[in-house]
Amino acid sequence: MPSLTVRQKLEILADAAKYDASCASSGATRASNGKGVGHSDGTGICHSYTPDGRCVSLLKILLTNFCTYDCVFCVNRVSSDIRRARFSVEEVVTLTLDFYKRNYIEGLFLSSGIIQSPDYTMEQLVQVAKTLRLVHHFGGYIHIKAIPGCAQRLIDDAGLYADRLSANIELPTQDDLVQLAPEKKATVIEGTMGQIADRKAEVDEDRRKLPSAPKFAPAGQSTQMVIGATPATDRDIIQRASTLYGGYKLRRVYYTGFSPYPEADTRLPLQATPRMREHRLYQADWLMRFYGFAADEIAPESDPELNLAIDPKLAWARRHPEFFPVDVNAGTREALLRVPGLGYHNVDRILRIRRYHKLSMEDLRKLHVRMKDVLEFVVTTDHLPVATLPFTTEQTDRETSDAEFAALPPAQPLAGLVAAQQMDLFAAAAQSAATGVL
């Protein structure tokens, strides 16, 4: 077999890396040191597109797509009949520096198939980052894929040179791994996550005492989960993510919908995972991370699948009408965060504004709140919910709101509503006195 050029290797290994979505440079800031090239300012790296049209952030390449594992859902599995290639450490370093100097990239995302052993593979990945940092004084963003089962010393070294580490959980449950990735064990993957989390906690504590101490993976760790390749429910997925966030202080869990490929194993589904399912899972993930929702609230046992027609926050509100309406001038932050249409930034703005005056519907409009979403769930100085939007699961939240919003009665002053209610009571009392009927 003739040897491949670096360009040919790049075409193969960049294409092989595009299915890994756990790549974003947010959360890392690394200033230029004045000796070499590059800095990381916390923004994204660059973008590419998977075959089903999803946009994912990268620069991403694999060190190699050779792999000793035979994960059924992975295109790079050992039994797959694909073109194989392998970069040397020096080739990855040179590519990264050349691309950076041309302003093509802002950093490097480096993963790999497993070759020889987890330790050997991880040593190669660490050597790339170490060479970039120490030899070339590279100040850009580096994300290294941690190989589950590798030695602690390699994790320690990787965290010194990489801004972020990630060990992929792969599938939602251990049963899923047994079926589709028999060489991988959830306990081993979580063990590596634990190594990263423990070491980062130790270093962060040292830095509180001595700020000049070296950082360890300053952008934290993330993971990726393939969805739709197994019968796991959305409840299984969300609960798994919640456990990982709580146990290992993850920055992100990335969800990648399974995409069928030619001549795939018969155990895999023939249909691609709906992109809307992936979107709803990210919305649910956001609710857990920023809005105080528990996994059981988002996907209860009685309703384990997310409704693809409406976002999870609105779905929760529909299931709990007793919680609403919420008074924007008196409700707690926790209560306001559960109102459909109110994002956490606007909730913080509302809390600041109401220290000086009470808010009306016009104030909410000035905050660019989505009025059609909040209308039936909030009370302001000039508004009480007077109608409930008709709803069917066949309609999306946006379609339902836009279609019905114009037909709703305008916001009414509270005083007028109270007066109208009092007049109704007086009229009823007069009729009762005249007829003798209670």
From TrEMBL:
Cofactor requirements of the protein: [4Fe-4S] cluster
Keywords (A to Z) from UniProt: Iron, Iron-sulfur, Metal-binding, S-adenosyl-L-methionine
UniProt-listed InterPro entries: Aldolase_TIM, DNA_rSAM_put, Endo/Exo/Phosphatase_dom_1, rSAM, rSAM_sf, RuvA_2-like
Record Gene3D superfamilies: Aldolase class I
CDD domains, alphabetized: Radical_SAM
Keyword S-adenosyl-L-methionine: yes
SUPFAM superfamilies xrefs: Radical SAM enzymes, RuvA domain 2-like
PANTHER family according to UniProt: ENDONUCLEASE/EXONUCLEASE/PHOSPHATASE FAMILY DOMAIN-CONTAINING PROTEIN 1 (PTHR21180), TYPE II SECRETION SYSTEM PROTEIN K (PTHR21180:SF9)
Name assigned to this protein: DNA modification/repair radical SAM protein
Taxonomic source organism: Terriglobus aquaticus
